[in-house]
Amino acid sequence: MPSALNNKRRRNRASFGDPRVMLRSFFLFAGILLFFGLALRVISAWQNRILVGDLRFTFVAAKDPVTVFSYEQSKELISISFPQNVEINGASGIGDWKLEKLYDLGNSKGVSGEFLVKSLQYELDVPIDGYFSGRFVSGFGGVMSIFMQKSNFTFFDKVKIATALARVDAREHKNLSAEKLGVVAEKRLGDGTLGFKFVGEKVKNLAVRELQDTSLTREKIGIGIVNGTNTSRGGEQIAELTRAMGSQILWVKNGEEKVERCLLKVVGDLENARRIARIFSCELRQESNLAAPIVFIIGEKLADELPR
Predict the structure, then answer these.
(1) What is the chain's alpha carbon radius of gyration, rounded to the nearest angstrom?
(2) What mean pLDDT is predicted for residues 77-105?
């Protein structure tokens, strides 16, 4: 009996030392690790997706030329292209820059399209959900190219965008030019070249006429804004942007409550509040007995991000 047991142990040791057995064990272990790694990435992409629900989504294509695309469920696709040498007051106090330089500037600072998205968002007073690094064209081929581009959108966001826009035919694509709309006007730039500048009143009219999120308008969401910073115009700047999203600004005031970046206090569970929180990267907190359905408290980090 002991001899049989010893023989079995010797066979097990021999099998364990067999290169084929070791190779199979390695591939099995690697397969398990790969499966769990992919599962974690899928879960992360779902949890971190930007586009939730059927609200309007807006994104910017960074090159050839810089173009803002906006789509609302059951409505046409709107795109607005900008001349590359239009001067823009950049976000985070970076000063005046040519629009065409902002994506590369973001890359050099390790924030990719953030400067481009934030700068256009504050200039147009329109919420922009994200960016794609290259061109975007309507139609199936163009839509599918978004899966190959660098972007802040997750895989599930890209599927949502592709699914929605693949259904848009040429007649449902309203292709606009900032120059023809009068949103920009010619200007002699600091380097002596002839370029463009944004025209404030035309920009505001464009935001309300073409890019307003009517889902907020339908729900008549009232927002109170509290500026908890030393930036005097911070409250008004945020009010302009949230108003363009379709919200009703009930009041803007300075307050003593301090937050690091920004905080949305909400009565109930509002999908639109979640979108506003995502646009500005704010904390979201449900509370009762608020002075407005949404109370938006501005902190120093958000104020520092605004153009000077």
Answers:
(1) 26
(2) 89
- Whether 56 and 71 have beta carbons less than 8 Å apart is answered as yes
Mean confidence (pLDDT) of the chain: 81
Question: In terms of residues, how long is the chain?
Answer: 308
Q: Which helix (H) or strand (E) holds 87?
A: strand 86-90
Distance CA(147)–CA(149), nearest Å, equals 6
pLDDT in tens, 211-270: 776 666 666 678 899 998 888 778 888 888 777 666 788 999 998 888 999 999 998 777
pLDDT at 94 over 70: yes
Q: Tell me the C-alpha distance between 210 and 212, whole Å.
A: 6
What is the DSSP code (8-state) at residue 297?
Answer: E
Contact 84, 98 (CB under 8 A): yes
- Joined together, the tokens standing for residue 145 give 């190219």
Q: What is the DSSP string of 237-293?
A: HHHHHHHHTT-EEEEEEE-S---SSEEEEESS--HHHHHHHHHHT-EEEE-SS-SSS
- As to burial, measured by CB atoms within 10 angstroms (0-12 exposed, 13-18 middle, 19+ buried), residue 56 is buried
Alpha carbons 290 and 50: distance in angstroms, whole number: 27
Does a cis peptide bond (omega within 30 degrees of 0) precede residue 65?
yes
CA dist 219 to 55, 101, 295, Å?
12, 38, 16
- Residue 5: pLDDT band with limits 50, 70, 90: very low
